[in-house]
Write a structure and sequence with these properties.
By secondary structure, the protein is α/β, with parallel strands linked by helices. It is built from eight helices and ten strands. The strands form two sheets. It has a five-stranded mixed beta sheet. Strand 1, helix 1 and strand 2 form a beta-alpha-beta unit. Helix 2 crosses helix 5 and helix 7 packs antiparallel against helix 8. It starts with a strand and ends in a 7-residue tail after the last helix.
């Protein structure tokens, strides 16, 4: 089976629609799944959730989804500076005020993880496990510099074996590693990349017979329309510039 895996859309409807258009144009994907963080930092949380609902795209709860759904005190985002912490609170406060009751219900209904078996559960075969951060918490960052030992430890939590795949997001930086025959995929970010490439990112995964095949895809979209939406919503200019640069620091 061929899967499209999306993560960290973060209320960016322009990026999501561009990715869905790319998937539709290719015409060879059997199923689309998302790995959470549908809302936060951009201006269209209700539109993003509604689009996924209309398309029947299943997925899991990111930290932003579960904190918004429960009206938690903080989004669960990691901040490296006082200004980042301030911006995180601004985003979270805006999102809590912007989401509709229907959106909150949808976010609250998202499971923590998904276990997909493309060859069916009646026989052995590879598994695709979806989490947002790690199999233990959706707030933990599974960065590319994590050790092989960490990856194996996380795989053991969900009982992965050689040939299986675990996919996650949260860091907004895509990567793929194979350890002991198990595939670890960070799907990057649709709506708020942090790897210096502003284009929307997603993963195409072929899983079933034979070894898993992984392709990282980047899709150009109307980033200025997304940036205007951020500004028109009264969100900080930093959020708009982040979209334009893919999180690349400004030149000094």
């Amino acid at each position: 089976m061929r899967f499209a895996l999306l993560s960290d859309i973060h209320a960016n409807i322009h990026a999501l629609d561009a990715v869905l258009s790319d998937i539709d144009a290719r015409g060879d994907v059997d199923a689309i799944y998302h790995a959470g963080d549908l809302v936060g930092y951009s201006s269209a949380p209700n539109e993003v959730v509604a689009r996924l609902r209309a398309r029947g795209i299943a997925g899991i709860a990111g930290n932003y989804d579960s904190t918004v759904a429960t009206a938690y005190k903080h989004c669960g985002c990691k901040s490296e500076t006082p200004r980042q912490e301030e911006l995180a609170h601004i985003s979270y406060s805006y999102t809590l005020g912007a989401v509709s009751a229907e959106t909150v219900r949808d976010l609250a209904a998202l499971p923590f993880s998904l276990d997909v078996r493309p060859l069916g559960g009646h026989a052995g075969g590879p598994r695709l496990v979806l989490v947002h951060g790690t199999p233990t918490l959706n707030t933990v960052y599974w960065t590319e510099d994590r050790s092989d030992e960490f990856c194996v430890k996380m795989a053991a939590v969900v009982g992965l074996k050689a040939g299986d795949v675990i996919a996650f997001g949260h860091t907004h930086k895509p990567w793929h590693r194979v350890v002991d025959g198990m595939h670890f995929i960070n799907t990057g970010s649709v709506g708020r990349p942090k790897d210096g490439d502003w284009r929307a990112g997603y993963v195409r995964l072929e899983l079933g017979e034979g070894a898993p095949r992984v392709e990282f895809v980047r899709v150009a979209y109307d980033v200025e329309a997304a940036a205007r939406g951020v500004i028109d919503a009264g969100l900080p200019e930093e959020f708009a510039e982040f979209l334009r640069t893919g999180g690349r620091p400004a030149a000094s």
